[in-house]
Amino acid sequence: SRDVFVACLDTGHANVNGIDPSYMAEVLGSYVEVLHVHDNYAALDQHLLCGLGTIDWKRFANTLKKIKFDGVVSLETCVKNYQKFPA
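-> structure tokens emitted (87 positions)
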């Protein structure tokens, strides 16, 4: 029950383990209260900014809307190792 169990969905960890973060959000539904949001290329946990890896962010945003997510978001913002950061 939500009284004793909630979820922190880590988009990058899902992606690197071969699980679509949108699917994970849909399965967890209202149990998702915290998001750790970052991107990667599904091979390493690179903690890239959204859009710099392989996650489908439009689909993820639509899923969050569908499950009526209104929790806390921790957004990864480190770009120190990424040389092609768009201006």
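The chain has a mean pLDDT of 90.
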